[in-house]
User: Fold this.
Amino acid sequence: MSLLQIKNVSKRFGNLIAVDGVSLTIEPGELRAIIGPNGAGKTTFFNLISGFFAPTSGSILLDGKDITRMSPEERVVRGMARTFQITEVFPELSVAQNLRIAVEVAAGFRMKPWIDRARREEVAARVADLLDNGGLTAKRDIRVGALSHGDQRAAEIMMSLALRPRILMLDEPTAGMGDQETYDIARLIRRLHKTNGMTIMLIEHDMRVVFNLADRIMVLAEGRVLAEGTPDDIANSDAVQAAYLGNAAA
Amino acid sequence: MWAMLLTLPFLMGAIGGYTELATRIVVMGLAAMSLNFLLGFTGVLSFGHAAYFGLGAYGTALTIKYLAPNTLLALGIGILTAAIAAALIGALIVKRRGVYFAMVTIAFGQVFYFIAFRWNAVTGGDDGVTGWHRMPIDIGAANLDIYGDDKAFYYFVLSIFAVCIGIMALLLNSPFGRTLLAIRENERRARFLGIPIDHHIWLSFLISCTFVGAAGSLYALLNNFIDPRALRFDLSGNLVIMAVLGGMRSFWGPLIGAAIFVALQDYVSSHTENWMSVIGLVFVLVVRFFPRGILGVLRGRASA
Assistant:
């Protein structure tokens, strides 16, 4: 069964139709990129899926279960994790503390006033694992707010991963980064996808990253699906060329 | 810190203070630290904590006066009164954020002030609840004379303080406590980690108000008297000042803030009625030059 099924969702803000009848299906293990010119509705589409707000119409199914009206917290419990365009972390806390909170919440300890030693050790081991996976072990005691942009992003991705999601949603993971940082984050995403078999859905502006990583690409323009297919299909699509060139010319 | 607290009544004597002043510092310290559970460790500002302080105080005073002359029972009822009110009001206001939350806490706080002020038959109105005093505690063979012996009362207050502070410290170092830090740091991230924000803020509010209620109850026992000023919003403001003064990001900071506040109040008010302007000046200077509070600065120096 498809992991995520989005059926004909629309979102209207007053007179503006930000997302207009978009459908999308994601299979387990897939890495799907969503691209499109500025204002195409990509982030709105992401927000609908992750529960930031509810769609005006249409439905969203995770594992065949309708989650259209669920709160973000309920969606997290069902296996959906996301990052944001502007990195959202706990800036005054250390990298290890950031991950520890995510690990504890994922383990169902969020209401616990006390956990025994065995469980504390399990948490610590999982945190160490995530630090290692994200290349953050040497920085574990540094305040996240004091890290470089790329490391903050890696920390945010690792926090999302701590939730053991079934699908990981990344909103412009390389936004505002230099070449080296972009490369490092792209490599991290590729590893999560190839080695851990993580299902990933990402919005991205950097075309090198998109065409390198994605199994399939969906192109949005003015809230509608413009094209959908493999990277080769998209690269050769006249409609996509026109949308991007038209946008660049304007 | 504990060594200092254990010897405080004797230190007070050495620097020209008196035991009751030490007790007042511990009581207000508990109130400020309880407020700071919400303010400093959950990132939620309440300007209405005097309501729960006052409810604890009235609950205790009225229990001893009308119900049973038993100090421990009165303490328990005082705390319970504050907790029940906090649970109900918290549920109503928890969806508000930031300054809106602060405003509704003031509004609800004033409701209790006016009840205490107007309901003469029970609360004595403006005159307060008089004609009662704390009772010695009888525990089997031992009799703890907390009424006659003010040092005994100090240690009684300190032990209640220790229990409350101990529970709060334990909670802050638990997975639950860390979800509160997460909410303080970044509500959106906390939410998308799967933490139901409103529910956790409600719990933090409830815990904070319950311990403020304990402080209020001890305050009534300390004075053997209570009047509506213990419920008024200026006390809420004073608690916030104590927390900020001492350092709201440090666990002990608000106690230091309370000590400075209470000592200044005691010393300056014996010279001038305008003691609040001195406190105000100190507050402005601290916020201007030590934005992390007094203990925050000391900690910063120590680790630098």
